[in-house]
Design brief:
about 1100 residues, five-stranded antiparallel beta sheet, DNA polymerase, domain 1, nucleic acid binding, globular, five-stranded mixed beta sheet
Length: about 1100
């Protein structure tokens, strides 16, 4: 909990979303009034509005009465002391009354401290202050994740579902929160757009959507797209978008040559089209201007009112829109080149224009600039440092940077320390931070031209002066910081010649750059991002303030989890001509959009399409597009009555898809997520494949006065009322229900309330054989429960088996087609703590025994059993092997022999460990057992009876271990993405933590492991250690007790550490690859394969 600015309250929570509240005070109201002296009672409330005049008038009378009462009290005390010696029982009774703790009358209080606490007025009025809390914002939180289940998304088009049948579409549903914050969390790793319609348009290379003319006074976002221009091999196609999309035969747009750019100017009043040979300005269906180019245009970009066009020969021209009134009084305009041109030597590779609304590119005014670290607050017209700090004064801090980090000047820093020290004492000046005022200042837009030259220099020119303001040498090297090379060198009036700029030598890194884009994202474009798309990577930089240089800013590289195997190769075919291949190579793959689903960001086309979003909070989110939608040839935002806030894109099959983002998901998170509130505590969730529904077990809590006690023969329910102020214990009431993934709500009439005091300990979707009227395996919902009465009463539980059947839905309620059908529900001899299936049989952990049951005619028939150790809470099975996890005694491996109907112990871990969860690891024909421990460790065990340390197979060998630092409470495994060129089959073991994390463990080949292990060892010296933790030491297995198996086994790579290799500068990448004796391409290939194998959900 944290108070902010005296009006806001921040509540951080681990069980729910963190909230930012606005606190307002209501009017005070009088609670009660006392007219007589207090006798034998104490009023612990504080009087807020005491009458000052009444106190002054009664001071003299109180002092006389206090003296008289003091003498009388001394005599009374002596008399009571004499009586207490004679009668001990009377002393005990007297201590039990509150009159012995305080005086019987407030007037008799002589101590000043007691007088301040209890007050001195005979008439006391108490007023209560009430507050109103208003929720301003919230931060998403999905922890703790108690259970997780895989399911199939329902809102998927048939075309997307049939794209790749071997890789089904999946989503994760997790149990999050507790109590009123309980919710089901739906997680998806990739973005799956909702397909509205699609149609084939072969031969299209690129496309742009153009807004229609917006009426004056309307906002830019209210306009709808009126035209769609498609680039073809030998021309352009113009489509008019309205209720229908139709081709326009006669329009003012040029259709004879391929279009390389189309957009809007003049607040969407004008439309501009740039082809390879000309520029055309259109307004309201009429052509205003046509400019013939002397060279072939390759790129173009717009920042209203400027247009930049770059040629293939390395020249650029910047034109500005000039608006004027025509002869008929209508608004008209023309494009005119700027007075100053862009220097064309060295040749230009990429160029783009940017309209800045953040104010970062505007240097502060030197006249109004303040000394860094000095207070701007004034007191009666005098400076703070000259006058000193006086009580009651209010000081303002205009910049939070000065408040947090201080300044460069020593006196100013000492002033900050003095103000902070004096704030601890009463009577010091009250500080008011006005850091938020700068966000209310209207920022005047400025215009800038970004240029990347052949020699690798990045230059920023101001428009329209065309003055060089920022210079970065070797900008495409992937450096972490892009600093201004002109910080210490003043800019001459005549500019800088070619030799000072680094000559015309060709830069290898710059030659790989394929695109340059600068955008302002987030609220009011405050997050300025610069994207440089190279052949093998996409570098994202953000601008931030810096006290030196001409523009007072720098660029820092953003660490994003971008795909390791990113390739910007154009989607070309060997049959393309030279002109067509050149057009496809120059297609802009980074497309800015202002409003798609309520977000603004950048869509990255290509073979691995991604969406880069920046929310109002300013956090950069990178989401991959689902694999069934890739690759994407081109993209364009599209806003229409039939598709509001949607977008268009071409896939590899030349199909134009009109899509929109799913509205039920929030994309302002690491993964697209949706929280479905339950107002109850979710415990278990599982997906039923046959009915395509989720089975959920949750509970509600309420205080209770009832409890059970043992009366010698049987339990007896009693109730004890201890008053309203007594904190009664809470009792959990469990229920089972079905959840629909279509509407994400509970299916009506499917809620089943369990008995009082009955707790659900496990939920499993089991496949059992039925030998009655049917045969084969069928999926059932099995539930294990326990009656928690008290520690004096023996625990017993039930096994409940449900079948989900299809019924005729009720009228107007299509979700009621699924119902529960109870097949079995009987009490067992002990608590049922774990359930699973093996070879069509149900296996359960009841007390300290494990039983195998056969479902026959809606009854369970015992088959075999075995004794276990302390408390079995997890069981897994594969074929005839059963893996058992004990709370304190680690794991054991059991085997069921169907011929002999025997269940026997094969091997177990001899050490003591608290196991949270476990799962199998499958690598071709090798089977391992992955467990998570209470101390935040992951350990991998294997059964190897040939090994010497296994004692003939009696002991499971710990092959590898890893310290995760979080408690893993749920695991599941899924088949890795198929690779047609490889026969290596493996499973990915996914896990979720109590801190809301999602991760995976993947078995890799020995060659890949050796290469990445050497990379990990070298990366320890190249990367900054997070929170001062050495990666090698922190990831070592940790245990509070000495284990039997010796020291840590290691053998697990830190994927997060190895993934940082992709964000390092190119020189460091090459240096690391040389140190470990390999190539950069091989390391990137290994990381790409890992990313591809685990690209699920």
């Amino acid at each position: 909990m944290c108070v902010i600015e005296e009006d806001f309250l921040f509540l951080g929570s681990r069980l729910g979303n963190s909230l930012l509240l606005r606190v307002t005070e209501r009017e005070n109201r009088m609670l009660f009034s006392v007219d007589k002296p207090l006798e034998a009672t104490v009023d612990l409330t504080v009087s807020e509005n005491a009458e000052h005049q009444a106190q002054q008038s009664q001071q003299a009378q109180q002092s006389q009465q206090a003296q008289q009462s003091q003498q009388a009290q001394q005599a009374q005390t002596a008399q009571q002391a004499q009586q207490s010696k004679e009668d001990p029982a009377a002393k005990k009774r007297r201590l039990d009354t509150i009159s012995d703790c305080v005086a019987t009358n407030v007037i008799e209080i002589s101590d000043k401290d007691e007088l301040e606490v209890y007050g001195s007025d005979i008439r006391t009025s108490t007023q209560l202050t009430s507050y109103v809390f208003e929720v301003c914002d919230s931060l998403l939180n999905i922890c703790p994740i108690g259970d997780v289940s895989m399911g199939e998304p329902q809102l998927v088009s048939e075309e997307a579902a049939d794209t790749e049948p071997r890789a089904p579409l999946l989503e994760l549903v997790a149990c999050s929160g507790r109590g009123k914050n309980g919710a089901l969390t739906v997680l998806q790793r990739a973005v799956r757009p909702q397909l509205i319609t699609s149609f084939n348009l072969p031969g299209c290379i690129d496309m742009w959507s153009i807004l229609g003319e917006t009426p004056e006074g309307a906002r830019e976002s209210e306009g709808a797209h009126a035209y769609l221009i498609l680039t073809q091999e030998d021309g352009s196609m113009v489509l008019q978008t309205g209720q229908e999309i139709n081709e326009v035969d006669s329009s003012e747009f040029m259709t004879g040559s391929p279009t390389i750019f189309a957009g809007n100017l003049g607040n969407n009043k004008f439309m501009v089209q740039v082809t390879t040979t000309s520029i055309r300005l259109v307004k309201g269906g009429s052509q205003l201007q046509t400019i013939q180019l002397e060279w072939t245009a390759a790129y173009a970009g717009v920042a209203d009112p400027y247009l930049c066009v770059l040629s293939l020969c390395g020249r650029a021209i910047v034109l500005a829109l000039r608006e004027f009134r025509g002869k008929d009084g209508s608004s008209s305009g023309r494009l005119a080149p700027t007075r100053q041109s862009v220097p064309h030597r060295p040749p230009l590779l990429r160029a783009t224009v940017y309209r800045d609304l953040s104010g970062l590119f505007t240097p502060p005014d030197a006249g109004n600039a303040q000394v860094k670290g000095e207070f701007s607050g004034k007191m009666k017209g005098k400076n703070v440092k000259a006058e000193g700090f006086k009580p009651g004064a209010v000081y303002e801090l205009n910049d939070e940077d000065e408040l947090l980090y201080g300044g460069d000047q020593t006196p100013a820093s000492m002033a900050s320390i003095m103000l902070a020290e004096q704030s601890k004492n009463p009577g010091v000046p009250r500080r008011i931070s006005r850091w938020w005022k700068k966000y209310l200042v209207e920022v005047k837009p400025t215009y800038w031209l970004f240029v990347l030259r052949l020699n690798g220099n990045l230059e920023i020119y101001s428009l329209p002066e065309m003055r060089l303001s920022f210079l970065v040498r070797d900008a495409c090297a992937g450096n972490r910081i892009l600093a201004d090379s002109l910080e210490s060198v003043p800019i001459p009036s005549g500019g800088i010649d070619e030799e000072e700029l680094g000559g015309s030598a060709q830069n290898a890194d710059a030659d790989k750059c394929r695109e340059l884009l600068v955008v302002g994202l987030g609220h009011k474009g405050a997050r300025v991002l610069m994207l440089m798309r190279c052949e093998d990577q996409l570098m994202i930089y953000q601008a931030y303030k810096y006290p030196r240089g001409n523009l007072k800013l720098r660029f820092s590289r953003v660490r994003v989890s971008f795909p390791f195997g990113y390739s910007s190769e154009p989607l070309s075919s060997p049959d393309d001509s030279y002109e067509t291949a050149l057009l496809k190579e120059n297609v802009r793959q980074c497309r800015y959009f202002s409003n798609v689903g309520g977000y603004n960001g950048v869509f990255v086309c290509g073979r691995t399409p991604h969406i880069i979003l920046v929310s109002a909070r300013g956090e950069v989110r990178v989401h991959a597009l689902a694999h069934d939608h890739a690759p994407v040839a081109s993209f364009a935002p599209f806003h229409n009555t039939n598709c509001p806030q949607g977008f268009l894109y071409f896939n590899a099959k030349s199909s134009l898809r009109i899509s929109a983002l799913a509205t039920h998901l929030s994309y302002d998170a690491a993964w697209p997520v949706r929280k479905v509130p339950l107002r109850a505590t979710p415990h278990f969730v599982t997906f039923h494949v046959e009915s395509r529904t989720y089975c959920l077990v949750a509970s509600t809590s309420a205080p209770t006065q009832a409890y059970y006690k043992f009366n010698g023969e049987d339990k007896e329910k009693t109730s004890d009322n201890k008053g309203d102020r007594f904190p009664y214990p809470h009792q959990d009431k469990f229920f089972v229900t079905l959840f629909s993934p279509v509407s994400w709500e509970i299916i009506p009439n499917t809620r089943i309330e369990l008995d009082d005091w009955e707790h659900v300990t496990c939920l499993k979707n089991v496949s059992l054989s039925y030998e009655g009227t049917r045969s084969g395996l069928r999926g059932y919902i099995a539930i294990g429960t326990n009656y928690n009465y008290s520690e004096d009463i023996t625990s017993r539980g039930r096994i409940i088996i449900y079948d989900i059947i299809d019924v005729v839905p009720e009228p107007g309620q299509p979700l009621t087609k699924n119902r529960f059908k109870e097949l079995y529900a009987k009490e067992q001899k002990g608590p049922v703590t774990a359930l699973t299936q093996v070879l069509g049989y149900l296996i359960s952990a009841v007390g300290q025994k494990i039983y195998i049951w056969q479902l026959k005619d809606n009854d369970l028939v015992g088959v075999a059993f075995i004794d276990t150790q302390i408390y079995v809470h997890k069981m897994l099975s594969v074929k005839n092997l059963v893996l058992v996890a004990d709370v304190y005694k680690s794991i054991s491996l059991l085997r069921y022999q169907a011929q002999h109907r025997t269940l026997s112990l094969v091997s177990r871990d001899l050490r003591s460990a608290q196991i949270y969860d476990m799962e199998f690891m499958v690598d071709n024909t090798t089977l391992g057992f992955l467990v998570s421990e209470a101390e935040g460790n992951l350990a991998l065990f294997m059964y190897q009876p040939q090994a010497r340390e296994s004692y003939g197979g009696q002991r499971l060998i710990r092959k590898s271990d890893y310290h995760l630092g979080q408690q893993v409470n749920a695991m599941f495994r899924i088949n890795a993405r198929p690779d047609p060129s490889s026969t290596h089959r493996r499973h990915v073991t996914m896990f979720t933590t109590l801190d809301g994390g999602v991760g995976y463990v993947l078995p890799i080949t020995e060659k890949m492991y050796r290469r990445l292990l050497m990379l990990q060892n070298v990366m320890n010296n190249y990367c900054c250690h997070v929170a001062g933790l050495n990666p090698r030491a922190y990831r070592t297995y940790k245990s509070s007790r000495r284990s039997v198996g010796g020291g840590p086994a290691r053998g697990v790579l830190d994927g997060d550490l190895v993934a940082l290799y992709t964000t390092m500068p190119n020189a460091e990448k090459l240096d690391i690859a040389k140190k470990i004796g390999t190539k950069v391409e091989e390391i990137m290939s290994d990381l790409y394969e890992i990313d591809r194998l685990t690209a699920h959900f």
